[in-house]
Amino acid sequence: MDLLLLAVAVSGISFSAPLIAATAAPALAIAFWRNAIAVGALSPFALLRHRAEVRRMGRRAVLLSAAAGAVLALHFGLWLPSLSMTSVASSTALVTTTPIWTTLILRLRGQRRPALVWAGSALAILGVVMISGVDLSMSPRALLGDALALGAGIAAAGYVLIGAEVRRTVSTTAYTYVCYSTTSLVLLVACLLSGASLGSGYDAQTWLKLVALTVAAQLLGHSLINRVVHGLGPSVTSTAILLETPGAALVAAVWLGQRPPAATYPALLVILAGLAMVILSDRRGKQG
Questions:
Q1: Euclidean distance between the first and the last CA atom of the chain, given in angstroms as a whole number
Q2: Radius of gyration of the chain (CA)
Q3: Which of 119, 106, 157 is nearest to 280 (CA)?
Q4: Which of 80, 76, 98, 78 has its CA nearest to residue 88?
Q5: Looking at the predicted structure, is the pLDDT value of residue 261 above 70?
Q6: Which of 6, 20, 40, 47 is 20 to 30 A off residue 216, Cα-Cα?
Q7: Which 8-state DSSP code applies to residue 114?
């Protein structure tokens, strides 16, 4: 069931890049609204149906959930601006180094990861590079964009790891509600400080796309990732997120009429092979 939900989550986040590209709004504003609308949608469930779960959250769980939200805001705040500073290919290749950082952070925390996890993560990232390529420029602006994308990849690893820790004792609804609320607040401050428009000049199509982005990428994407990370673990979850790259290419091909790179289909097989190696290693570890 967790693998099935993970497939739905990856499908949801695959709509993120095409919808962002088609939405006429500032990057930070898009990030804010996708989280704020999600909080609005979750509020009736979190505050009414699951109120007891939210109230039972201890101080540590609340602080960790808020920390995850802040790190998620950092991820959005770094990655989206990088797309306009460096090439999309370079930004994509660097932000999807998340599994390597996840495995490295776990190692630094004293958790030895099997060689198969390292190999599978590297193979999956190779699949992403096959699609996006590496187009590093030496211009100061492009290098800054590359640095932002790399920082976003590290932040995503922190988000997944903190979420895995909180989900040991906290329900998906309670954790997600506190996390997204924090993300919305941090991004709202970022929008106000940067002067990003939060609604002025938006037409009906823009608002419709923001709602679609929230439902697909946030509620079905990130929320289900928060659900399955408890059972699958951070290594499997972060590696599976790499499937967003070929998924987004296929969505763009069908919806926007953009022909996917020739390497999309073989790269998809490479990413799946890397993910299978990580899952196999994880299952061997649990059986051992």
A1: 22
A2: 18
A3: 119
A4: 80
A5: no
A6: 47
A7: P
